[in-house]
Amino acid sequence: xxxxxxxxxxxxxxxxxxxxxxxxxxxxxxxxxxxxxxxxxxxxxxxxxxxxxxxxxxxxxxxxxxxxxxxxxxxxxx
Length: 78
What we know:
Layout: H1 6-9, H2 16-45, H3 49-54, H4 62-67
InterPro entries: YjiS-like (IPR009506)
Domain YjiS-like: 30-63
Pfam family, one: YjiS-like
């Protein structure tokens, strides 16, 4: 028969340093995502209307397409 130690069953408490590192990682990821999206929007805005139409976008849909809020079911294929 084996005994289970009470120390092994105790929940781990997150340290303050671990929480701070997680917060910094989330903050860094958020900033990086923001800059990547802004660069994608800038690149798409440089395209002419015909090129945008070829990829299924109009100029007013650029930001929603980049952020992922673009609903393909609402778009009509012409």
